[in-house]
Amino acid sequence: MKTKTGMKFLVLAALAAVGWLHPAAAQQAKAPEEMTREELKAYMAANPEFFLKTMRKLMKWDEPAEPVRVAGPIYFVGTKGLSSWLIRGSEGDILLNTCMPGSGPMIEASIRKLGFDPMNIKWLLAGHSHVDHVGGHAYIKKLAGAQVAVAAQEVSMLETGGKGQFNYDGVPGFGWEPVKVDRVLRDGDVVKLGDLALTGNVKPGHNVGSVTWTMQIVEGGKLYSVVFPDGAGINPGYRIVKNPSYPGIERDYRDTLYFLSILKPDIYLFSHTANFDFDAKRARAASEGVQAWVDPEGYRRWVANASAEFEAEIDAEMGVSTKGK
């Protein structure tokens, strides 16, 4: 049995190996000598319930965080490890992602702490229907009476509390309170609310109906393009080419990675705070303002890393050596 410290490093190394950590955070993740990275990934793939519980604890998914304004109408109201984005408009607000079940009250409290009324939330969106991003949907919908929009591929999944999701169907901890869907999204649909307009780009891979949301904002008289990327992550246990997790998953990933590669955002905001160096950017924003969040180079590096991880995953499945690549 591993010590708590050893287990912590085991999990951090696994997360780094599958691309869940921002490079800055991954540097501190050293795999224990007795296990290779592939063995770590295999361990996590075989133990999804343990993987989820460990992620929640180590990555602080359930810990409250101070809310903060990012730029324009965008505010962070999530937890220490998971992002929830309040986007304020002239005719009401949009909430993107609601973190884990139980996070609803924390999100509500963060919104109120900023001086806003959560009852103004009119639309409830998500990058994809996994428990760590739609877990609080039911709470917010009941609280504010908000309408829920989701990609067509995930309507049944969201309304049944996670039934039918690949890789996690029936696994304890991966379900959520069912939520009634009010609008079905197709690729390119726009959610409009007063002066707000978010384009939903349905780009599957990480989930069957992952959505990369894009919008433009104004800060200090300057226009900025913002993207909330989704669809590129590969979780432990996903299968791309051999006995694929769902039919067409390889093509979906390739299409999504291509789409993400042609975007040119000024600001990119992830659903997981560790994936875009949120804490460091937030700290710099106190003195730098919006410029702390402007990171087109960081976005390009992230896309390149995601593409490399995808190809490495296929090589691993096919038993192709990556030495010398």
In short:
This protein is of the alpha/beta class and 325 residues long. It has helices at residues 4-17, 23-26, 37-46, 48-58, 104-113, 131-134, 137-144, 155-159, 249-262, 278-288, 296-318, and strands spanning 68-71, 74-76, 85-89, 92-96, 121-125, 147-151, 183-185, 189-193, 196-202, 211-219, 222-228, 267-268.
Molecular structure report:
The chain is of the alpha/beta class and 325 residues long. It has two domains: 7-47, no CATH class; 64-318, Ribonuclease Z/Hydroxyacylglutathione hydrolase-like (Metallo-beta-lactamase, Chain A, 4-Layer Sandwich), CATH 3.60.15.10. Helices cover 35% and strands 18% of the residues. It has helices at residues 4-17, 23-26, 37-46, 48-58, 104-113, 131-134, 137-144, 155-159, 249-262, 278-288, 296-318; strands spanning 68-71, 74-76, 85-89, 92-96, 121-125, 147-151, 183-185, 189-193, 196-202, 211-219, 222-228, 267-268. The strands form two sheets. It has a seven-stranded mixed β-sheet, covered by helices on one side. The chain has a five-stranded mixed β-sheet with strand order 8-9-10-11-12, with no helix packed on it. β3 (85-89) and β4 (92-96) form a beta hairpin. The longest helix is centred in the C-terminal third of the chain and has 23 residues, at 296-318.
